[in-house]
Amino acid sequence: MILRRKKHAKKTPKEHKLVLVSQEIGETSIAIVENNVLEEFYIERESARKIYGNIYRGKVKAVVPGINAVFVDIGMGKDGFLYLHDVDESDLESDAEFFNDIVPTKPNKGSDLAKTVKVGDEITVQVVKEAIRNKGPRLTTKISIPARYLVLTTDRTQLGISRRINDKAERERIRAILAESKLTDNVGFIVRTVAEGKTKREFNRDIKYLLNVWREVQVKLKKAKAPSLVHEELNLVERIIRDTFTEDTSKIITDSEVLHRKIAHFLKRYIPEYRANTDLYKEKVPLFVKYKIDRDIETAYLRKVPLKSGGYIVIEQTEGMTAIDVNSGRFKDKKDIEATAFRTNIDAAKEVVRQLRLRDIGGIIIIDFIDMNMEKHKRELMKVLKDSVVRDKAKINILKMSEIGVVEMTRQRIRDSKESSIYQSCPYCTGRGVIKSLPTMRIQVLKELRQKAGIVKNKQIFVALHPAIAEDVMQSSDLQIQNIEQTTNNKIVVLADPSMHREEIAIDY
């Protein structure tokens, strides 16, 4: 099932939402805190420039009929990947329902593209997925430009309303407002979920802004030479404020004077009706430490995440999927095992969803909950899981729980996860997460020594090892080494080399 946002009830005054923006040398971090709990966390580094949403004038480098796709040079090093049928993978309200009674429909150009594109052609494309590992960025020719409440589209000149706005009267009201507006420039619009309840003035402001941006893009396209950047998406701070700032946001706090000015300017330009409280933080204690979310940020990179109940979840990310295991830990009620499993699973379901957002994990996700026998407990767990993902902006699909308590779900992947952008594979374990134990290395050293010593005689054989391995071999294998020396008429010298990998063995004679 595809989960859609529910219509939210009006929040009580007790809700307390903060947007904290911290800037260090070369890095900007944003934390969204609700009722003193870290709910979302974002990082942008100057050295890792994001190109999602950027529009380029590109040049076709290769046509691959076998997969019905082309590779496009956009001037970024890695060629972009574009399906000839031009599937729109944008996450901007892509589940919208379109109507033909506002403006006439423009035919999709995807089929024409498949017949005419050839190497060397220049083409206008937009990035809908960042380059991930060895894959280049995913592209589309269906250009879309987002604003606060609307998204401008160029592949069809229709009005679309997100299906997540499920109130019929509200949908009719929005359609009436847009029907009165002057929708020009041969483009269409999608009404975003956050637009529910907004006024004609707010819609018109977005229309004016989007049309101005699109006209600027068209002017640049006429002058652009492929490959070149034509339009750059908003930076992280502007993007997050645009997409998450609401009337229940209590305050925006930043520790950077430059960002403080930029945020004030952005709010005045894009959301002038809100009188947001923006503060410049000047205390010596770091901003995230002051608001006690530094530890929460650290848990976003831990393999093992503790639960309030005393249990824990283990998160294992691979290239193909993410596996999450739920454990009761020290939280155990020996008298009622079912109750222990149920309470731990409920706690875990909420934390899993939170961690998926914090880590920006996408793709296939497998959750192995603790086994439960009662069907009502299984139903309640699935309800909690589905209710918890409602606030997630990514598209999520949750399948039924299996008989053994495993839930499979998918979460839309647009960018690489934060873990992969902040961490690199361990040079010791080369990404395995483990290294060979001392006994394993000791046995391997003796095997290789016996093999090498068996092919020479009357030689001095040097074996260089990591200091920890060398010490273990000398202390635990003295008799075995003597036996090899006697049977092969060679002298073995063990050397400790701090520069060596723990699993490296260098034998010379």
How is the secondary structure organized here?
Elements: E1 17-24, E2 27-34, E3 37-45, E4 55-64, E5 69-73, E6 80-83, E7 97-99, H1 110-116, E8 122-129, E9 138-140, E10 144-146, E11 150-153, E12 159-161, H2 168-180, E13 188-191, H3 200-223, E14 228-231, H4 236-244, E15 249-254, H5 257-270, E16 278-280, H6 287-290, H7 294-299, E17 304-306, E18 312-317, E19 321-327, H8 337-359, E20 363-368, H9 375-388, E21 396-398, E22 406-411, H10 418-422, H11 438-453, E23 460-465, H12 467-476, H13 478-488, E24 491-496, E25 506-508
Parallel strand pairs: 1-15, 12-13, 15-16, 19-20, 23-24
Antiparallel strand pairs: 1-2, 2-3, 4-5, 4-8, 4-14, 5-6, 7-12, 8-9, 10-11, 11-13, 17-18, 18-19, 20-22, 21-22, 23-25
Q: What does it look like?
A:
It contains 13 helices and 25 strands. It has 509 residues and is an alpha+beta fold. The strands form 5 sheets. Strands 4, 5, 6, 8, 9 and 14 form a 6-stranded antiparallel beta sheet that branches. A 6-stranded mixed beta sheet has the order 17-18-19-20-22-21, covered by helices on one side. Helix 4 crosses helix 5 and helix 8 runs parallel beside helix 9. The radius of gyration is 29 Å and the shape is globular.
Average residue pLDDT: 82
Low-confidence stretches: 1-14, 87-94, 100-112
Radius of gyration: 29 Å
- Distance between the ends: 66 Å
Overall morphology: globular
How many helical elements?
Answer: 13
The portion of residues assigned to helices is: 25-40%
Query: How many strands?
Result: 25
Quick one: biggest sheet?
6 strands, antiparallel
What class would the helix/strand composition place it in?
Answer: alpha+beta
